[in-house]
Design a protein that fits this description.
Layout lengths: L14 H31 L6 H30 L6 H34 L4 H4 L2 H24 L8 H8 L11 H44 L4 H38 L9 H25 L1 H12 L16
Helix pairs in contact: 1-2, 1-9, 2-3, 2-5, 2-9, 3-5, 3-7, 3-8, 7-8, 8-9
C-alpha cells in the first residue's frame, strides 16, 4: 500500500515472472473453459445422457465454465499486477461471483452425493425420490442460495463486520480489490459453505462405499449359487452404478483437495492477525480454481461414453441428422 496517497501499490515483478504467471493462468483459463464447454455440449446434446446425475453434472459444468469465463481472467490481472483497474463496483461483482460459484460447486457436489446415496443404498426408492422435480429443486437450490449468500454478504459488507477499522487502516487502498473477512464472517462463511457440506459428503461416500462392498459380495454369492445368465443385465447395471459412484467420489475428493487449503487459510488468517502472506493466499485461490479445470479431465479419463462423445464431436458426426440419438453405451 502506498502510504502517501492511499493508492494500491503495484507489485514489482520481473517481466519474465509476469509472463510465466500469465502463461500458467491463461492455460488454466483455456482448459477450464474449453473442457467444461465440451462437457456441457456432450451432456446437452446426447439424449441418452439426460439423467438425474448428468443434469447435476451439467449444471456443475456450467458453474465451472462461468468461473473460467468471468472470474479467473480478472483474478489473473489482479494476481500479476497486484492492483485492480476496473473500479469498486466491478470489484464487488467479481468477489461476489467468485464466492458464489465456489459455493455453488460444493452445493452441486453435495446434491450429487445425496443422489448417489439414494441410487446405491435405496435403489428401490430411487425412481420415486429422484425425478425431474427433485432434480430441478437441487439445481435451483445450488445456484440460488450461494447467489443470495455471496452477493448479500459482499454488497452489505457483512464480511467486514467487526473489523471495519482494521480494514480501513491496514487493508483498503484505492485501486485494490482485496477479499477480506472478519473473524466472525470468516468462521461463519467457511463452516457454512465448505466444512459442513464437505464433512457431510465425506460421510455419505463412506456409507456408499460400505454398501457398495456389501452389494459386491452378495452379487458374487448369488452368481456362484444360482449361475443364472439372466442376472447379467442386472449385474452390469449395478457395476455401472458403482463405477459412476466411484468416479463422482473422485470428483468430490479432487474438489476437497483443491479448496481445503484455501478455506483453512481463510478461517485461520483473521485469528492470527492476518499474518498469512497475501501471495500465499492468492496461490491457494488459484489452486482452488484448478478444480474447475480438473473435472472435465476426470470425465474424459474415466467415462468411456465421454470419450466416445468427444470422438463424435471431433469427427463432425455431431452435425448429422438425429446424432443426438446416438448410443454412447449399452443399456
Amino acid at each position: 500500500m502506498d502510504k502517501l496517497n492511499g493508492s494500491c501499490e503495484k507489485l514489482a515483478r520481473s517481466l519474465s515472472l509476469q509472463f510465466s504467471m500469465l502463461a500458467f493462468m491463461g492455460l488454466a483459463i483455456v482448459i477450464t473453459m474449453s473442457g467444461n464447454f465440451l462437457a456441457i455440449t456432450v451432456i446437452s446434446h446426447f439424449k441418452q445422457l439426460h439423467t438425474s446425475t448428468n443434469s447435476l453434472i451439467l449444471s456443475l459444468a456450467v458453474c465451472d465454465f462461468l468461473l473460467g469465463a468471468l472470474v479467473m481472467p480478472c483474478s489473473a490481472m489482479r494476481s500479476v499486477q497486484g492492483c485492480w483497474f476496473l473500479g469498486e463496483l466491478a470489484c464487488k461483482l467479481h468477489t461476489s461471483m467468485d464466492i458464489m460459484l465456489s459455493t455453488s460447486s460444493i452445493f452441486h457436489l453435495s446434491f450429487i452425493s445425496v443422489e448417489r446415496y439414494i441410487a446405491v443404498c435405496t435403489p428401490l426408492q430411487y425412481q420415486s425420490m429422484i425425478n425431474s422435480v427433485t432434480t430441478l429443486f437441487m439445481v435451483v437450490t445450488s445456484w440460488l442460495i450461494p447467489a443470495i449468500f455471496a452477493f448479500g454478504m459482499i454488497f452489505s459488507e457483512l464480511n467486514l463486520k467487526g473489523s471495519e477499522d482494521f480494514y480501513e487502516t491496514n487493508v483498503y487502498c484505492h485501486g485494490g480489490c482485496p477479499v477480506f473477512f472478519s473473524q466472525a464472517s470468516a468462521a461463519f462463511s467457511s463452516i457454512l459453505a465448505f466444512f459442513i457440506p464437505g464433512l457431510i459428503m465425506f460421510g455419505i461416500y463412506i456409507k456408499i462405499y460400505k454398501v457398495a462392498r456389501s452389494h459386491t459380495r452378495s452379487i458374487k454369492q448369488q452368481a456362484q449359487q444360482l449361475k443364472v445368465e439372466d442376472e447379467n443385465g442386472s449385474r452390469l447395471s449395478r457395476q455401472r452404478e458403482r463405477k459412476g459412484t466411484i468416479i463422482l467420489a473422485i470428483v468430490v475428493g479432487v474438489f476437497l483437495i483443491c479448496w481445503t487449503p484455501f478455506f483453512l487459510c481463510t478461517i485461520t488468517d483473521p485469528f492470527v492477525g492476518y499474518t498469512i502472506p497475501p501471495t500465499l493466499v492468492d496461490a491457494l485461490v488459484w489452486f482452488g480454481y484448478m478444480n474447475s479445470s480438473f473435472n472435465p479431465l476426470i470425465y474424459a479419463f474415466f467415462y468411456s461414453w465421454f470419450r466416445r462423445a468427444l470422438r463424435i464431436i471431433v469427427s463432425g458426426r455431431i452435425f448429422y441428422r438425429d446424432s443426438c440419438q446416438m448410443k454412447l453405451y449399452s443399456q
